[in-house]
Specification:
201 residues, 8 helices, mainly alpha, 70% helix, two-stranded parallel sheet
Length: 201
């Protein structure tokens, strides 16, 4: 069994250099979408608590702590945006999360397994993107993202650990399938730039 103990072991591809270049010239969009991602990450943890908490109460505390941390990250990004004078403007939806959710199975507990595995991939990709951004961003934002890198690594391991502990017995197979789908989203062309987008057109 592959434990996928590190981000590089989980992800099937690295972030394309073209995305990093786009991030440097679209930092306002990067920050705005990052703030949105933190809110969505908190909502995902809350949704899992309500959907599966009664059957799996031992997941509740871990997901509650995760949701609080994601909301703290949102507040931190929001403060950075205010300092930089970045307006919080609405952004259209990205294709990344929806592209991953297309692979969700409908029956339970298979669906829960897939939700946890997909959560692990989203957190792992966030972690990897922070890592590639840190060397090229200005000091204050680089320092902030370096701190978030460790948190996202914890989060991906939490999701994957829950999938292995509470999910179906085919987690490795699901990881392999979703890894391929995730890599395709990252490597293919994307019409919009977002925190988790693919290669900018």
């Amino acid at each position: 069994m592959n434990t996928h103990a590190t981000v590089k072991e989980l992800l099937a591809c690295a972030t394309p250099k073209a995305w990093v270049k786009a991030a440097l010239v679209q930092q306002e969009v990067l920050l705005t979408d990052h703030a949105n991602c933190e809110k969505k990450a908190a909502a995902t943890a809350f949704n899992l608590m309500f959907r599966y908490g009664e059957r799996l109460p031992e997941m509740q505390e871990a997901l509650s702590k995760l949701a609080r941390e994601e909301l703290r990250h949102f507040e931190q990004v929001n403060r950075i945006m205010r300092r930089r004078g970045v307006p919080y403007l609405p952004l259209g939806p990205a294709r990344y999360a929806e592209g991953l959710r297309k692979h969700l199975r409908k029956k339970e507990p298979e669906r829960m397994t897939d939700l946890l595995v997909i959560g692990a991939f989203i957190e792992a990709r966030s972690c990897e993107r922070f890592e590639v951004l840190v060397p090229v961003l200005e000091e204050d934002l680089a320092g902030f993202y370096a701190g978030l890198h460790a948190a996202e690594a914890r989060h991906f391991r939490l999701y994957l650990g829950m999938a292995r502990k509470y999910g179906t017995g085919d987690v490795d197979e699901r990881v392999e399938a979703i890894a391929a789908a995730e890599a395709e989203l990252i490597r293919s062309e994307d019409k919009v730039f977002r925190f988790h987008s693919g290669v900018p057109v």
